[in-house]
Records
---
Amino acid sequence: MAVAAAEPETIWKPTVEELASRPIVIEVDHLDWSFGARQVLFNVSMKVHEGEIMVIMGGSGSGKTTLLRHLVGLMPPVANKVKLLGQDIGSLKALEKLELRRKIGVAFQFGALFSSMNVAENVKLPLRELAHLDEKTMDIMARLKLEVVNMSGFGHLMPAELSGGMVKRASIARAIVMDPKLLFLDEPSSGLDPVVSSALDDLILRLREAMGISVVVVTHDVESAFKIGDRITVLDRGHILACEPPDQIRVNSNERVQNLINRRSEHVEVDPEEYLRRLAGD
Amino acid sequence: MAAVLKVFEAIGRRTAKGFDEWGFGAALLAESVMWVFVGRYYRQPVRFSHTFAEMMRFGIAALPIAILLSATIGLMLAIQSLYSLGLFGAQNFAYIGIALSVTREFSPLIMGILIAGRSGSAIAARLATMTINQEVDALQVMGINPVRFLVAPMLIALVIMLPCLAMLANLVSIGAAALYVSASLDTSLGSYIYNTLQILKTDDVWHGIIKSSFFGLLIGLIGVMNGAGVSGGAEGVGRVTTRSVVQAITAIVVSDMVIGYLSTH
């Protein structure tokens, strides 16, 4: 008996027009940043709408992690540069900042799970420290979130016992346990094989669909960026080269954007005589 | 000339870095104290369960080695006291030196050095690993203040447990010395204990307790300062761990001398 091939499940994505009509939840306004004499961000501006998945893409050293650290408030505050949910994080008081942080979830590149706690305790930590719920309720909520990320039954494991993909999923479960309005993911697919990476992309899309949250994903994985992003911001050497929907990014005329999405190294003209002179130390 | 300038530049840089580190330590202490008092207002109290867990780790888990070291110190002091006082035929007064030196000096100092090696290094290594693994960043973005969650329980635990260990060390050291002296001089154990209690004043015991509390604070702050300032991956963790032990022991010995001088003049 022939078995019909399963239809690939399509995950809902809002249109760009639909997203543009929604309120802005993240706003970066002409942000410059330097580490000492080395400037890493130049006049960066971007807006993310409610329910949008914004992918920040760029090569190594492009400034995307620095930008993400600004967005989640891990860099020294700068007034009137970064607004989350309408609040300027550079001028918030300590108590207001704590309140705002309850509304955002962050999953770090390497998970940042607490190695002394098992997966369930890691997921419960924000609830235990911030929500003041009873143990039973926290157990239920942690179990629910672990189920959302397909990790049910693994709560008792320690982080050291998890595979790379499981660490990422557990980290996402912890990031969404407080039902945040904004979710930030740092390199969610790095170090994962293509199958696990693709499953993680589906998870991100489903999370947006189920929870209606806005997601900012920092990645250099082109395939993943095109799959999940409603818009893609291409960052290169601290400058934003483009901020467009994936289909427009594909046909963007900027050479550097094309180099990045087609994984081409930059062509550098070499003068053989000059090269030999440098080698000889003249 | 250039070489001399380089030396001065290096000294200047190190001095500035030292001030910077101690400023960071002072800020950590101030913030920890603040969280103890205002944590409830921010709905982020310093958890008793965390503090209790640290107390178990720093204090109770160190009991076997603390008892062994204290007994050895007591016996060593008894042996040396009997030998040196024997030169003058004054062995019967050994209890005076033993009682005062144990309570005022040896117990706080030896327990301080023990905990600096055992727990100071663990604090530095733990915080350094957490910093490198972005666990500290994770706490911050969750809205959980790392000083309140990690540092304050450690400092409270050390400030409480080190004096407790020093008190225990007093009992064990004096007990071990009493057994040795009474057996060597063929006198009763009871009379040794009686004489010791007669010579010891409450101030002597308090001197040791306050000093060991201060040592606990030093160990905690130095461990945290080094752990939080880590850079350079696994190698960096090893470096800050060693550095924190060396710094803590140096700080304990130097401050012990200063406190000893100030309290006797």
---
Amino acid sequence: MRTLAVLKTALTGNYAVAHAVRLAKPHVIAAYPITPQTTIVEKLSEFVAKGELKASFVNVESEFSALAVVYGAAMAGARAFTATSSHGLFYMYEMLWWAAGSRAPIVMAVVTRTLGPPWNIHDEHNDILAIRDSGWAVAMASNVQEVLDLTIQAFKLAESAYIPVAVGLDGFVLSHTVESIELPPQEAVDEFLPPRRPDLPLRLRPGEPITMGNIPSDDRLHAEHLKNIYRASQEAKKLVKSIDAEYGKLVGREYGGMVEGFELEGARYAVVCMGAWCGDAKEAVRSLRREGVPVGLMRIRFVRPFPDEEVAELSGMDRVVVFDRDITPAGGILGREVASVLGRDKVVNVLAGLAGVDFKADEFRKAVKHAVEGEYADRVVLL
Amino acid sequence: MTVRIDLLPKTKYVVPGNSACAGCGMMIGLKVLGMALGEEAVLSIPASCASVVQGLGPKSGVALPILNVPFASAASVATGMSEAFRQLGVKGQAVVWAGDGGTADIGFAAVSAAAERNSDVLYIMYDNEAYMNTGIQRSSETPKGAWTTTTPTGKREAKKDVALILLAHGVPYVATANIAYPQDFYRKIKRASEIRGFKFIHLFAPCPPGWLFDPSLTVEVARKAVETGVFILWEYDNGELKLNPPSSALVDKSRRKPLVEYLKLQGRYAHLSEDQIKQMEEEIDRKWQFLLRFAQAARPRA
């Protein structure tokens, strides 16, 4: 590996997103402020105003328009970025599906936040998980360094798979927390992420009479298009791994692709979780290992496409404890997804950290211990 | 600028295979747009009749680059295309071709925002005065008194004047146009496309099935709207608002044709009483007085 002139610095998660976007050199950025996403777009507008990023920064009147602007830009050949959170993400809903259905290679940061009522700006994963079936690739980072690396990788993934990519980071826990990170030099990012090919998947430009999205002459054409998006999403799993590996070779950090494994060697129990609190869960795993409990951890990095193959590797475990920082009338979303691979009997689904309530390493430790000892009566445990 | 109809470009952009209704007024407008900007325009079209008349994909009966987009998004999508053109060095004009519902109702926040930002977009609202694509439901552009399927006894509220609202945004160019006057519409598109920034054209486009008239009468209905003073041709350019011919010759009310000549062509007004028609005439007068005072106020400084 070459030696890179990395810049060691300290950034919040949101500023890490902004720096990653600056390094990715998008042509068009549009966003509407919402807590806790706001400082991403403030920083990006500052980069553009100072000339540190040559891009159009478009101020819009809503998140729906933010995504519509970057969608229009992407369909005209531009590299485009937006960011949002919670209610803003939900206000985009129709455009999310339209963008994915158009194979528009957009990157969007989602700073996770609970949904009202009541008005509450704190962390939860229900918002980003609600877009899981829209056709977007959906990923979650676990620390500020990964926020930066994942955002850069997301552009490459979007422009290779022609699937828009949402990069999630936990509101406040990552978005407003300063961590020490390394910024790769521009040349390394340029090498990893060459300019976008504006002609793919198609390009709207003057003089070329292409019509995108008019009524199909045969519904089977539309059906085939939908199947192709599914196929592309499955293919994207390989791309996630190869892009992560390529990035790893260049900058020296590799995350494991679709999931990150931790202490799984020799484990009889596994913890599955996603996002920043996996750091606390790892601490719990370490502590349990010291107590002699054979437990490991699988961190979901990409929840869409879903890492079925990787989760299936946990089929030999005696018990799998899935932590969801979300809640639905049917239980936890990750819990159900993991159970769809491993079967319901193996999975204990713990729902915690809702509405921003803190869930500490020791609480993870206790919950995992209870779960593996079979002390919870229900499959869905509300903590 | 005088536009001679025999000298207009001959390339056809509305071609066989389109699926417009017989006598579609909007389609006449789209032909003129093709003549004026066929090689420069990229269209953002929201859910509307305009998304249906393109015909069946993967083919298209409209030979222009078109991005079909969600109902409320057209102005924002066009903004994105326009910014992409700027960043990628592409010479082109992002055009929104949207109905009155997509503009004045569901898409209005995005239209207003694009205008306020002065985004480089030519926004053309073809106005057929109701939601025609879903089967003739009222919009905020449906005139008072008109029948629609959701105003079965006639609409009670007045038509929203979107062009004047856009003018109040301080954009560089706003005009009204009418498919019965294609040279005027052509000239306005050309003029608008010379200006960088947000341009708005309100295009009057009668709808035979929606207004209940024979498809052979589309141009006649559109012309009568101007001749009776119902629809006023005007243009706001470079800080000046002026009436365009033939509306400019109809300031004197006595020169306008009787309103009933316009109304009697259309089944949607068949239920109106004489009193209601008289009230409608008075409201048209007030509209003229308001616009003329506005034009007076918006004269360029000496």
---
Amino acid sequence: MFRALVNFYHRLGSPPHFYRISGRLAPWFIGLALVLMAGGLYWGLVLAPTDYEQGDAYRIIYIHVPAAWLSMFVYMCMAVAGGLALVWRMKMAEVMAVTAAPIGAGFTLLALATGSIWGKPMWGTWWVWDARLTSELVLLFLYLGVIALDNAIEDRRLAGRAVGILALVGVVNIPIIHYSVEWWNTLHQGPTVTKFDAPSIHWSMLVPLLVMAVAFMLYFGGTWLLRARNEVLRREGNRRWAMELPEAS
Amino acid sequence: MSLTEFLAMGGYGAYVWSAYGITVAVLAWQLILPVVQRRQIVRQIRRRKRQEARRA
């Protein structure tokens, strides 16, 4: 059993194996994500009841909250990969860290944009320098910083390590985003779902939210694999295994 | 519920649908970009292979 695990780990660490496995997995991740999204959207937009305070404007929650969760989840994935890249100098960990950044930036942008659109009718303003909004904006800049750093360094191995350091330092921002609504009592509402006692949202609204969150996570998984195998092919394009791929003939 | 009622979203239609529209656009971009890039990378490898074959 242990041997099998070690074996699996080594195979994932090897670019040709990763390339093959990710090619098989990615369509399943994305396909399942799209099916769940269709179901979650129908449930959230059609079946779920109207909110008694916010009317139908609350339905933005089904994309806003999953995007915000993913913006932090992707960051943690990037930081773990960056840490592995620094400690063990694993090539695949470097690839995973670098390729997570643009996806995380996308989710962060979505969380900010949908939040802003939701804020206008509810708060009367597109933007306030509230602690939650500001720390989420800092997250976007951290992602953009990782992308810029990676583009600025020619040597791929060196870029991988630099990205790892920046990703790890930026982890400080994650608990700040999470606790911002408790530490500073400003405009953004407190947590509704992740409270330790019962969540203050009815199950008929909560279930589609969780379905959308799982769908977003699977979509991240699939697009991450696609970007990572592209990066592998870009780095190893002149290796024998890449030249011998059926798609390259 | 009629379709117009559904699209109106209780008067918040412009907000709800623009939020959903942006989301669809960003998520689609996240899928289209790697697919297009993959094609470019594979084409590059093929070109390099041909050059090497000519040299040999």
